[in-house]
Predict the structure.
Amino acid sequence: MSLYLLCILLFCVGLYSILRKRNIIKIIIGLGIIEYAVNLFFILIGYRMHGRAPIFSGDQAVLNMVDPLPQAIVMTTIVIGLAITTLAVSLAIRIYEKYGTFDITKIRKLRG
């Protein structure tokens, strides 16, 4: 149960970073932290104490296997999260090239 609470705490740290920080890079890092918290939550859902790998062979009984579906979902979200992070960093670089700052309040003031 404490692992779930730590997962929620990690999610809250990322959410705080997105909502309260003004630097675009810190906001992108907050998105990454939230992604890791969600991935950890999915892995914790499929985890079983003393569980076996989900590989079936004829001499093994299907008892106490780890659920493979959350693992597959997390592998997919890692790839999608990497693409989103790459896109966000490239947009941040373009914004810095145009405005010369990563501060979102200054960027809003420069809008004309």
The mean pLDDT is 88.
